[in-house]
Amino acid sequence: MVYGKYRRTGGYQMQQLMRMINANEEYLSNEVTNIKRILANRPKTNWFSHNVKFIVDYIKGKDLGLVDLLLYEQYCTYSILEVYPLLEQSGLQFVAFNDVKMKIPYR
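Below the sequence we write its predicted structure tokens.
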């Protein structure tokens, strides 16, 4: 996957928060409990609250989705301007976004 640098800002901020909160946790189940506690008590002004219409992994995937979205540490994000040189270096061409809603704004 190529993750967008700006559209998922709230998710990336939440990932950083969860790394700090879970720094000394030994068990993944405790980390998931902490995530649920934080999400249930976040203010409506939190950036993650604004991203929920774009980031639905944690709703569809439940606990597994939470782990993938907020505990995975290998995310590498790109802006549109960073994607094109990456594709060119790889000998690939951009075809389309996987999100239908994103196709129109970038055309």
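The longest helix spans residues 28-41.
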